[in-house]
Protein backbone atom coordinates (compact mmCIF):
# COMPACT_ATOMS: atom_id res chain seq x y z
CA UNK A 1 0.00 0.00 0.00
CA UNK A 2 2.91 2.36 0.76
CA UNK A 3 4.34 1.70 -2.70
CA UNK A 4 0.90 2.22 -4.25
CA UNK A 5 0.61 5.63 -2.61
CA UNK A 6 4.06 6.50 -3.92
CA UNK A 7 3.27 5.47 -7.50
CA UNK A 8 0.13 7.61 -7.47
CA UNK A 9 1.87 10.72 -6.15
CA UNK A 10 0.58 10.36 -2.57
CA UNK A 11 3.99 9.96 -0.92
CA UNK A 12 3.03 11.73 2.30
CA UNK A 13 0.14 9.32 2.85
CA UNK A 14 2.49 6.38 2.33
CA UNK A 15 5.01 7.74 4.82
CA UNK A 16 2.21 8.50 7.27
CA UNK A 17 1.09 4.88 7.02
CA UNK A 18 4.67 3.78 7.71
CA UNK A 19 4.76 5.98 10.81
CA UNK A 20 1.60 4.29 12.06
CA UNK A 21 3.19 0.88 11.54
CA UNK A 22 6.25 1.96 13.52
CA UNK A 23 4.08 2.86 16.50
CA UNK A 24 2.81 -0.71 16.70
CA UNK A 25 5.61 -2.56 18.45
CA UNK A 26 4.04 -5.91 17.60
CA UNK A 27 4.64 -5.37 13.89
CA UNK A 28 8.12 -6.05 12.52
CA UNK A 29 9.03 -3.95 9.50
CA UNK A 30 10.22 -6.25 6.71
CA UNK A 31 12.72 -5.43 3.91
CA UNK A 32 9.94 -4.95 1.33
CA UNK A 33 8.30 -2.28 3.47
CA UNK A 34 11.60 -0.44 3.90
CA UNK A 35 12.06 -0.59 0.12
CA UNK A 36 8.61 0.92 -0.42
CA UNK A 37 9.40 3.74 2.02
CA UNK A 38 12.71 4.47 0.29
CA UNK A 39 10.90 4.57 -3.04
CA UNK A 40 8.46 7.11 -1.61
CA UNK A 41 11.34 9.23 -0.30
CA UNK A 42 13.06 9.03 -3.67
CA UNK A 43 10.07 10.21 -5.70
CA UNK A 44 9.28 12.95 -3.18
CA UNK A 45 12.85 14.25 -2.88
CA UNK A 46 12.83 13.60 0.88
CA UNK A 47 16.53 13.03 1.56
CA UNK A 48 16.55 13.28 5.36
CA UNK A 49 13.66 10.84 5.67
CA UNK A 50 15.46 8.52 3.25
CA UNK A 51 18.57 8.47 5.41
CA UNK A 52 16.50 7.78 8.53
CA UNK A 53 14.83 4.85 6.81
CA UNK A 54 18.04 3.39 5.37
CA UNK A 55 19.88 3.60 8.69
CA UNK A 56 17.10 1.60 10.33
CA UNK A 57 17.57 -1.40 8.04
CA UNK A 58 19.57 -4.07 9.86
CA UNK A 59 20.94 -5.86 6.81
CA UNK A 60 20.30 -3.71 3.75
CA UNK A 61 20.25 -5.53 0.43
CA UNK A 62 21.42 -4.25 -2.94
CA UNK A 63 17.87 -3.07 -3.63
CA UNK A 64 17.96 -0.84 -0.56
CA UNK A 65 21.34 0.59 -1.57
CA UNK A 66 20.03 1.30 -5.06
CA UNK A 67 16.98 3.07 -3.66
CA UNK A 68 19.15 5.18 -1.35
CA UNK A 69 21.27 6.18 -4.34
CA UNK A 70 18.03 7.09 -6.08
CA UNK A 71 17.03 9.29 -3.13
CA UNK A 72 20.33 11.18 -3.37
CA UNK A 73 20.63 11.35 -7.16
CA UNK A 74 17.04 12.44 -7.78
CA UNK A 75 17.65 15.25 -5.27
CA UNK A 76 20.72 16.33 -7.25
CA UNK A 77 23.19 15.22 -4.57
CA UNK A 78 25.60 13.47 -6.93
CA UNK A 79 28.70 13.84 -4.76
CA UNK A 80 26.90 12.23 -1.84
CA UNK A 81 25.60 9.49 -4.11
CA UNK A 82 29.08 8.69 -5.43
CA UNK A 83 30.55 8.63 -1.91
CA UNK A 84 27.74 6.33 -0.78
CA UNK A 85 28.39 3.95 -3.70
CA UNK A 86 32.11 3.84 -2.95
CA UNK A 87 31.71 3.36 0.80
CA UNK A 88 29.39 0.38 0.33
CA UNK A 89 31.33 -1.00 -2.67
CA UNK A 90 28.30 -0.89 -4.94
CA UNK A 91 30.11 0.08 -8.15
CA UNK A 92 29.51 -3.26 -9.82
CA UNK A 93 25.77 -3.52 -9.24
CA UNK A 94 23.76 -2.46 -12.32
CA UNK A 95 20.65 -1.52 -10.33
CA UNK A 96 22.70 0.92 -8.27
CA UNK A 97 24.22 2.53 -11.36
CA UNK A 98 20.79 2.78 -13.00
CA UNK A 99 19.53 4.63 -9.93
CA UNK A 100 22.39 7.11 -10.34
CA UNK A 101 21.59 7.41 -14.04
CA UNK A 102 17.97 8.29 -13.27
CA UNK A 103 19.19 11.28 -11.28
CA UNK A 104 21.39 12.29 -14.21
CA UNK A 105 18.34 12.23 -16.47
CA UNK A 106 16.26 14.39 -14.14
CA UNK A 107 19.00 16.98 -13.65
CA UNK A 108 20.29 16.77 -17.25
CA UNK A 109 23.77 15.65 -16.21
CA UNK A 110 24.63 14.36 -19.67
CA UNK A 111 28.37 13.81 -19.19
CA UNK A 112 27.93 12.01 -15.89
CA UNK A 113 25.12 9.97 -17.37
CA UNK A 114 27.29 8.91 -20.29
CA UNK A 115 30.01 7.70 -17.89
CA UNK A 116 27.47 5.69 -15.92
CA UNK A 117 26.12 4.09 -19.10
CA UNK A 118 29.68 3.19 -20.15
CA UNK A 119 30.13 1.47 -16.78
CA UNK A 120 26.91 -0.46 -17.30
CA UNK A 121 28.00 -1.57 -20.77
CA UNK A 122 31.30 -2.80 -19.32
CA UNK A 123 29.53 -4.72 -16.56
CA UNK A 124 27.01 -6.38 -18.88
CA UNK A 125 28.16 -6.03 -22.49
CA UNK A 126 25.41 -8.38 -23.74
CA UNK A 127 22.54 -6.55 -22.04
CA UNK A 128 20.22 -4.91 -24.57
CA UNK A 129 18.86 -2.61 -21.85
CA UNK A 130 22.23 -0.91 -21.47
CA UNK A 131 22.38 -0.06 -25.15
CA UNK A 132 18.83 1.27 -25.03
CA UNK A 133 19.97 3.62 -22.28
CA UNK A 134 22.94 4.57 -24.42
CA UNK A 135 20.51 5.54 -27.16
CA UNK A 136 18.75 7.75 -24.60
CA UNK A 137 21.99 9.62 -24.16
CA UNK A 138 22.34 10.08 -27.90
CA UNK A 139 18.79 11.44 -27.98
CA UNK A 140 19.62 13.93 -25.24
CA UNK A 141 22.64 15.01 -27.27
CA UNK A 142 20.41 15.49 -30.34
CA UNK A 143 22.04 12.56 -32.11
CA UNK A 144 19.00 11.01 -33.72
CA UNK A 145 20.51 7.66 -34.68
CA UNK A 146 18.11 5.52 -32.71
CA UNK A 147 14.36 5.60 -33.22
CA UNK A 148 11.87 4.05 -30.85
CA UNK A 149 8.21 4.52 -31.65
CA UNK A 150 5.90 5.83 -28.94
CA UNK A 151 2.34 4.56 -28.63
CA UNK A 152 -0.54 5.51 -26.38
CA UNK A 153 -3.93 3.92 -25.99
CA UNK A 154 -7.29 4.62 -24.43
CA UNK A 155 -10.26 2.33 -23.84
CA UNK A 156 -13.70 3.54 -24.91
CA UNK A 157 -16.87 1.44 -25.07
CA UNK A 158 -14.97 -1.82 -24.55
CA UNK A 159 -12.58 -1.09 -27.41
CA UNK A 160 -8.92 -0.08 -27.16
CA UNK A 161 -7.94 2.82 -29.44
CA UNK A 162 -4.19 3.03 -30.15
CA UNK A 163 -2.39 6.18 -31.34
CA UNK A 164 1.12 6.69 -32.66
CA UNK A 165 2.98 9.95 -33.20
CA UNK A 166 1.11 12.17 -35.65
CA UNK A 167 -1.45 9.42 -36.13
CA UNK A 168 -4.29 10.30 -38.52
CA UNK A 169 -5.65 6.78 -38.99
CA UNK A 170 -8.49 7.22 -36.51
CA UNK A 171 -11.84 7.90 -38.21
CA UNK A 172 -12.29 10.82 -35.80
CA UNK A 173 -8.88 12.39 -36.50
CA UNK A 174 -10.39 15.62 -37.80
CA UNK A 175 -12.30 16.10 -34.57
CA UNK A 176 -9.26 15.13 -32.50
CA UNK A 177 -7.01 17.77 -34.08
CA UNK A 178 -9.76 20.39 -34.13
CA UNK A 179 -10.25 19.90 -30.38
CA UNK A 180 -6.52 20.24 -29.69
CA UNK A 181 -6.12 23.30 -31.87
CA UNK A 182 -9.04 24.94 -30.07
CA UNK A 183 -7.42 24.22 -26.72
CA UNK A 184 -4.06 25.55 -27.90
CA UNK A 185 -5.58 28.91 -28.76
CA UNK A 186 -6.54 29.29 -25.10
CA UNK A 187 -3.14 28.37 -23.73
CA UNK A 188 -0.12 30.45 -22.94
CA UNK A 189 2.74 29.36 -25.16
CA UNK A 190 5.44 29.72 -22.52
CA UNK A 191 4.07 26.81 -20.51
CA UNK A 192 4.61 24.50 -23.48
CA UNK A 193 8.30 25.15 -24.01
CA UNK A 194 10.03 21.75 -24.28
CA UNK A 195 12.68 20.72 -21.79
CA UNK A 196 15.69 18.53 -22.62
CA UNK A 197 15.56 15.02 -21.22
CA UNK A 198 16.71 11.47 -21.83
CA UNK A 199 13.44 10.33 -23.41
CA UNK A 200 13.92 7.56 -25.95
CA UNK A 201 11.16 8.78 -28.19
CA UNK A 202 12.47 12.31 -28.71
CA UNK A 203 13.29 11.44 -32.31
CA UNK A 204 13.16 12.82 -35.83
CA UNK A 205 9.65 11.57 -36.44
CA UNK A 206 8.26 13.40 -33.44
CA UNK A 207 10.20 16.58 -34.19
CA UNK A 208 8.12 16.95 -37.36
CA UNK A 209 5.03 17.48 -35.23
CA UNK A 210 3.99 20.08 -32.72
CA UNK A 211 3.14 18.96 -29.21
CA UNK A 212 -0.41 18.14 -30.32
CA UNK A 213 0.92 15.31 -32.50
CA UNK A 214 2.35 13.22 -29.67
CA UNK A 215 0.62 9.94 -29.05
CA UNK A 216 -0.61 10.57 -25.50
CA UNK A 217 -2.02 13.97 -26.47
CA UNK A 218 -3.92 12.45 -29.40
CA UNK A 219 -5.34 9.77 -27.12
CA UNK A 220 -6.26 12.45 -24.58
CA UNK A 221 -8.07 14.50 -27.22
CA UNK A 222 -9.95 11.40 -28.35
CA UNK A 223 -11.08 10.95 -24.76
CA UNK A 224 -12.21 14.57 -24.52
CA UNK A 225 -14.42 14.39 -27.60
CA UNK A 226 -15.72 10.89 -26.81
CA UNK A 227 -16.76 11.18 -23.16
CA UNK A 228 -19.11 13.36 -21.19
CA UNK A 229 -17.87 16.54 -19.55
CA UNK A 230 -16.46 15.71 -16.14
CA UNK A 231 -15.59 12.10 -16.95
CA UNK A 232 -12.18 10.83 -15.86
CA UNK A 233 -9.95 10.10 -18.86
CA UNK A 234 -7.44 7.24 -18.64
CA UNK A 235 -4.52 7.05 -21.11
CA UNK A 236 -1.57 4.64 -21.11
CA UNK A 237 1.76 5.22 -22.87
CA UNK A 238 4.46 2.65 -23.59
CA UNK A 239 7.35 5.09 -23.07
CA UNK A 240 8.17 7.75 -20.52
CA UNK A 241 6.07 10.89 -20.88
CA UNK A 242 8.01 13.85 -22.26
CA UNK A 243 8.12 17.17 -20.43
CA UNK A 244 6.41 19.04 -23.26
CA UNK A 245 3.47 16.62 -23.22
CA UNK A 246 3.37 16.72 -19.43
CA UNK A 247 3.10 20.53 -19.53
CA UNK A 248 0.47 20.30 -22.24
CA UNK A 249 -1.63 17.85 -20.19
CA UNK A 250 -1.41 20.15 -17.17
CA UNK A 251 -2.59 23.07 -19.27
CA UNK A 252 -5.51 21.05 -20.62
CA UNK A 253 -6.51 20.02 -17.10
CA UNK A 254 -6.95 23.71 -16.27
CA UNK A 255 -9.62 24.05 -18.93
CA UNK A 256 -11.65 20.86 -18.60
CA UNK A 257 -13.84 19.59 -15.82
CA UNK A 258 -12.64 16.19 -14.72
CA UNK A 259 -9.46 14.31 -13.95
CA UNK A 260 -6.91 13.18 -16.54
CA UNK A 261 -4.81 10.12 -15.72
CA UNK A 262 -1.86 9.21 -17.94
CA UNK A 263 0.16 6.14 -17.02
CA UNK A 264 3.70 5.75 -18.32
CA UNK A 265 6.43 3.29 -17.21
CA UNK A 266 7.43 5.70 -14.43
CA UNK A 267 4.15 6.30 -12.62
CA UNK A 268 0.51 7.32 -12.81
CA UNK A 269 0.16 11.03 -13.63
CA UNK A 270 -3.05 12.45 -12.15
CA UNK A 271 -3.73 15.83 -13.79
CA UNK A 272 -6.30 18.17 -12.29
CA UNK A 273 -6.68 21.97 -12.16
CA UNK A 274 -3.32 22.48 -13.85
CA UNK A 275 -1.32 20.29 -11.48
CA UNK A 276 0.04 16.75 -11.61
CA UNK A 277 0.31 14.32 -8.73
CA UNK A 278 3.98 13.70 -9.59
CA UNK A 279 4.71 17.39 -8.93
CA UNK A 280 6.79 17.50 -12.11
CA UNK A 281 9.21 15.00 -10.56
CA UNK A 282 9.13 11.61 -12.26
From TrEMBL:
The record's listing under InterPro entries reads: DYW_dom (IPR032867), PPR_At4g14850-like_plant (IPR046960), TPR-like_helical_dom_sf (IPR011990)
> What does the record list as GO biological process?
RNA modification
Q: One GO molecular-function annotation for this sequence? A: zinc ion binding
Q: Where is the DYW domain?
A: 193-282
> Which residues does UniProt assign to the signal peptide?
none
Write down the superkingdom of origin: Eukaryota
Question: Would you identify the family this protein belongs to, as annotated?
Answer: Belongs to the PPR family. PCMP-H subfamily.
Q: What is this protein called?
A: DYW domain-containing protein
Q: What is the lineage of its organism?
A: Eukaryota, Viridiplantae, Streptophyta, Embryophyta, Tracheophyta
